[in-house]
Amino acid sequence: MTRLQEFPWTEKATIDVAVPQPVKTRTLPTQLNLYRIPWLQAALANPWPQFLLRVVMLMGFLFTIVVALLGSRVGSHNFAIIMVWIAWWTTLKLGFIPLGGRSWCSICPIPLPGEWLQQGGIMEKGKRRLGLHLKWPKALRGSWLQSGGFLLIGMFSAITLTDPQVTGWVLLALFALAVGMSLVFEHRAFCSYICPIGGFSGMYSKAAPVEVKVIDKEVCAQHGDKSCYRACPWGVYPLAMKDSSTCGLCMECLRACPKDNLALNLRPYGTDLARPVQSTRLDETFLALIMLGSALVFSAVFLGPWGWLKMSAYNIGSQAWLVYAASFLALNLLVLPGIFAMCVAAWKKISHSSLPLRRLIAQEAQGLLPLGLLAWMAFTISFALPKLNFVVGVINDPFGWGWKLLGASSGGGLDVSQISLLLQVFLLVVSVFWSARVTRKLSTTDEKISRPTNYPLLAFYLVYAGAFLWLLAG
Amino acid sequence: MIKEWIARGIVILGLAAVISIPVIKTVHGSNGIVIHARMAEKGGWTPENLTVAVGEPLHLRLTSDDVSHGFAVGQLNQPAVEINPGEMTDITLVFTKPGKYTFYCTRWCSLNHWRMRGTIEVTDPPAKTEPAKPPLYVSLGLDIDTAHKAAVTPVGIPAAWRGALLNLSVPVTYLNRDYYLSHTPLDLWSALRSDQSYKDLSEQEVWDLVAWVWKSNTTPEQVQAGKEIYSANCAACHGEKGGGDGVFADQLAAGSANTASNQNTGEHTQRPANFTDPATMLSASPAHLQGKIIRGGMGTGMPAWGAIFTEDQTWELIAYLWTFQFNSEVTP
Asked: Would you say the ipTM is above 0.90?
């Protein structure tokens, strides 16, 4: 038997190593304030790095529009198609959202020019502020319009994702709408209520591991100046934030707070989930279901083996397309919501929950977020990763004018077929467990419920993940 | 305030830099005419009419906006080049003779593939335009649109080697190339049949003799060259084996019954000619076939190839067409 003393390093080791210590449980803090890390604080407190990054993004965005409209008509050789729908989409779905929630919003270039006009300045608010600064109509609050926008893009996705001209006009229209809305409404009305990306990023940011949060509520209560609120381009008061869905992580409040009372926290996944919901608003329920439904449809159209389905999604205006569009809308607005509502109703019956059905639906919808987030990641792995090799090609010759910016290139294909299915199975299994955990936690918070296993919703998650896996695996 | 102005300056400079990029194209990309290829239904070639002077190099940058196409110029002996979607193919052409040349697609890109044609006008001010020689079917006054059907057809495939083995002499008139070009195999068969010196031959033996005479008017090189032209240009409709059953045949046949199915062209089409059918082929002369090929079959969907094939290429093609009727082997 080898004794510990025979290892030379034990002599140098402190007594702690040799003598077993009682295992400390839960010594890790539940959150870590990144703003306390000196170099990160320096980088975030200074507005310039973020500003310069946004300018680079703005240049990239406008370049993309120019190339989309003037470059090659062939999607796989057009910089815009590849950079937006392959490179950016992959980064968003596999990077920004799962790692940072709304972090894309913090460097998104679309609101920059509009905000300059709206605020009369970029770095400082100016005296000459343009626009009407109207309040956003109360009836249009929530994510209804974002859901609608996503459905609209979804109905035309086969052409938007492949035709550079259409992509160019869609991007230009979004850009014009963002600038226009900055001049009519106050704050970031476009980002908060129209932008489909903002819609689902905000929703999934509740599950993400990053948040901006007030450190000590008392300090805020004592502080009458509300510098954070006045600095926030989104019109959000940090103290009033229920969760991170409305926060665009722009860091303006951290820079503005004279008391240094705001934290940029690294937190456990799903911190904002499984909370009892007071409202009966169903906008987020619908958005969550639309994300689930469209992930299914896009997998079938873009990854499935059905040529007729592709053709009907592509032939916009044809009879086949009308059937496709109607089915797409029906699945997202009737079928999935119907099934989900029935599952919740069944659960209400089993659990004898005292909550009204509508409120219970709004509450249980939180369980759909992990499922949707990870299903979209799984879809993106199949959809975008195998096409990443096109990125080299379009950077080499962005306009399709025969340029060779990187020299003769033949970007080798990225063969992810071996690991992608494994990764997708893993993601979907995790999503079911995670969603089930959220649902269970919701059940356990209600003291009247004796058996907290929500079988109807568990079945919903399992069937969805199974169907999705079947579509991905073929 | 200085910070604010710096920020504004950066934004404006950045935007100006990006938006000015297309200007680079006009400065940078002036070395060559960019020609976009699209399926005929989507517009074909853009631009489709070019002009260049004799001896002056014409730089073309070819790209496809949809599927793979090919590029070649008719009447020139230059290999075709590939045009791939989203990529640029550079080609330089120098014309030595003035005239109107036709460039065309060499890939079966769609049913209307052959409609992908454009012209290059090669000008040479001092040169006098020579009047073109009329093709043989015109000088013979042939009406190539009338129906023709041989009343007599061979039972089996006539074989040149069997005809040779008969070891009979055929009058020189029939061996003459002009006779071959302007007469049908049936003409020769009838002439030989009514000739008393061949009265001992069976009907099939006379056909073998016809096959031998026909074969003696073509060379194996011509047949081989014709075969290549046929595979590249004709087989899509007429079929690899000449049976009129190429990949587009059914679509063309549908066009005869229903013009709505042919909205793109607004033209009637019909099932492509079957070169294995003795009744039509044996009642057609090389001049007649030449007419069909260079002029095209009006109202049938058959393109006109006159602007593309040289006269020699047309005769080579016709030499190959006879192999669908006759066994041209010299020895069994």
From this structure: no
